[in-house]
Amino acid sequence: MSRQPCLTCGQSIGGHARTGVIRQLAAMLVRTNHYPKVYSLLNQLPLCATCISRIPFLHDPWCMVCGRHMLVNSRGTQAICGDCSGFPEQLQITNRSTIRYDDWAKNLIGVYKYRGDERLMQLFSTLLLIAWYRHYDQQGIELITYVPLHDQRLRERGFNQTELLAEAVGRKLGLPVRKLLTRQKNTTKLSQQTGKQSRMVSMNDAFLPAHATGDPATYDEVPRISAAPGKATVPAIMLIDDIYTTGATIRSCAQTLRKIPALREARILSLTVCRS
Amino acid sequence: MLSFFICPLNKLFKRYGNFLAEGSVFFQTEREREKIGGVTLSGMSALGSLHSLDTTREYIMYGKETEQTGQTAQRGIHLYITSCFSVDQLFWREQGAGRLIVLGSSPSLALVFALKERMEMRLAEGRGGNRVDSRILHRLAEEQTMLYNKSVQQLAREKDMGKLPFAFTFNPWSLSDDIHGLGVADQAGGIAQTDDSDEGMVKLEDGHYSFRELEQEAGRMHELLMGRSLLWEEVEFLHQQKRAGEHLSEAAVQWLVLKGAVLRLPGVSLTLRKGLLSRKLVPVCLRCGEMEQIKLTVCHSCRQACAYCTACLQMGRAKCCTPLLCSADHSLSVHHRQPLLQWTGQYSPAQAEVASRARGFVNGDETAFLIWAVCGAGKTELIFPVVEEVLSQGGKVCIATPRKDVVLELAPRLTRVFPDVTTLTIHGSSTEKWEQGELVIATTHQVMRFYRRFALVIVDEVDAFPFHNNHSLYRAVDRAVSEQGKILYLSATPPKYLRDKLVRPHHAPPSATAGQNRLCRLWCRISRLFKIKQELPHASATHVILPSRYHGHPLPVPKTVIVQGWKNKLKSNQPLPQVIQPLEDSLEQERQVFFFVPRIGDVDTVIAYLRYHLPRYAERIEGVHAADQGREEKVLRFRQREIVLLVTTTILERGVTIPRSDCIVLGADAGIFDEASLVQIAGRVGRSANSPGGTILFLMEHRVQAPYQAIAQIKQMNQLASRIQRGVAE
Ligand SMILES: [Zn+2]
Ligand SMILES: [Zn+2]
Ligand SMILES: [Zn+2]
Ligand SMILES: [Zn+2]
Q: Chain A contacts of B23, Cβ < 8 Å?
């Protein structure tokens, strides 16, 4: 157990109270087959018992498409939320998130985005892994990619927070992580946009396949992803981002990913830390 | 002459082109590439203008020949780093200096710095009479870059990062093109952009400048940077705050660097240490001095191997490619109205002596001084005279304290007694961070943002978090103080390091040398070993002790009680008379009780236990810990006597004082309670003049050192106080 203090409140981590909280939480989050994995992930969180119990985990029932929590109890059926049912099926991208985007998450994500704090990275990548065990471990994911930053923004900041997350998750799962996309437009900040509609419009053609632009970060060949003969499930690529708001970013990325020949047959799933 | 400028740019263009082909580095969009092309074609750019192209900022290293004419002509060479080469050309031309030899550039300031340092070392070794030409310099640079690349890969392997996709690049310029030394600008007409008029106009990325304009702009920038130590991002922010609408001119900053008014360092430096088998690369954060918590990364800003500091990350990302600008402040402020101190309070004789000794210190030869005043001695008032002394001499004063609430508490008191002085309150969320003032009250972290500014830095509660054992903050204080400045430590429980350094044995003469002092300390240690009675020296040239409270009564001495198996008894709700009895006694006398426990987890257990065993007071027993949302409110209710027994962790060990209160420490043998912490806890009791006594109990299972050391320290203080009273302390 790390001897560092709790990341959010500064108190010392540890004590038997924490074990109890984690046990209860792990049992609530996953079924028995993943219990040990999720238990040890929760235990790795750099948080104390009080702060762990404050994490706003998403609970079922959730929308089968975007993963948001739904108030209507339609357990068991393939429920789709109002927002998602507005899209034609080929535009729907399956997303899952770990936590709600409340003030606690907003604050931490903000700090992480601008400082790239290593310990916050560990916190968020652990949260992503928990969602992976909850939703995606049977999905045949073979490749991980992430939502890129615009080059200029990247240079100003020096790092891409989602890239760091993707790499941490990839390392833990033993899956390859590739930069597949390049951001074309320097889209204005989320907060500066008004309304859902304008945001969706501004996301059109925001991305390009990275190899087509000669982006040298894609130095490795994109592995071909296609169903093995005799196998039922089509393999998938997982797209990682920090927040899912309207899904416009994710849909735009997915559209671009479909244009990459080697990935034409792959299914696209997205995994984000927060669902607002 | 023009060819000189086009050549390096051609080179650059070629280089970027190569990168595209090799695909080893990210590259900009089509639009940006066009821009570079455009620049090359028109041949109108100064090297400095590369910045405005949204490309990575480049730091250029060049050598300057210092030429002495005469028979025994010896050419020396000095190396310089610049972000705007044309500014340097202008500068050296004005100085009439010799030739400039451009060696190359890199986006990693840390790398260029390290190369410069190592090359200077090499040059110094092989100086003699041999002539240093550009080829030798280029070879040296190449050699050293390779060394760095090897060691950074080594470090990456050690840190389990695998092979780094990017290593360091130092791009040599203009070597192969012309063996006669192309890339060498002679002094006659080095600047391609010089206007036809002989005004010495220079065109930079931010417009045309004449020599005079550049000087003026530099002067304005200097005013902004004076006394500060800031990362480039912070400079940008400060500039935006103070000079909104104006362009932040890198040329002006470079001008200041050349004139020596600003020191430009990489945020994180890279040094090579000689290891056992090979050289080891050691990144050090130059802002906070951290060496352990530095992360090696692949940076998208400089497209290099880069490192950033996680220790001071909360104040922005210090990394290899970010410059840290430090500028000393030598200005003196003038006060027209004297006296500055408007305080009507009265000192006790003991306080008066301490205050005057502290005042004397700033005019003496020593650079550091310790005021060791017991809890409840009235520390803040003690510093008024010394602050006034320094302020009236025109110097600036900084009071650094570890906690924000102390800053907020001190500020109004100081503003009241120094009404004519500009006082700034600086903490993480303060809006006065970027203002100028003569008296600054800051959290210890914010002290890192100052550079050679204060004639006096007072460090309050040196032992409290996070100053204790925190090397980087000592460093920050050392840097914030001006060259002849003084540091005054103020504490009730000074850490051993400071005691050893500043509490000089009284049998050493005041003018004792370091060697004599060491001898004295050795003698003290020997006498301690043989249990020869030790007397705490009341005062010396570097310290003074105030052993009594303002009301003059001795400090209450804690008692220890061994309680076997309290944890189990607590859990199974069995009676613990050693705990319950003294509590009942205190509560019956209508005294309030602080009940300290070692861990947060103990708080709730203890509350439940005490409520059960003290049913009469059950509703007036509460508990607090750091993560407790209702902490402030509960402390307030404790102050108002609504709560009579407050169970707490160490968070209340300082700050909160309640008249007529007692203290119980359960588990005083736990590691979290060290000597200083226990002395502070004992300091809660007997603060008011009408109830100077009280009970302090240390309950523990095992005999450990800390509680006994704390008791010994308190007794020592009482002895010293009575010695002073009898007039025999000197
Ligand atoms: Zn916490
Ligand atoms: Zn949905
Ligand atoms: Zn640092
Ligand atoms: Zn960098």
A: 214, 216, 219
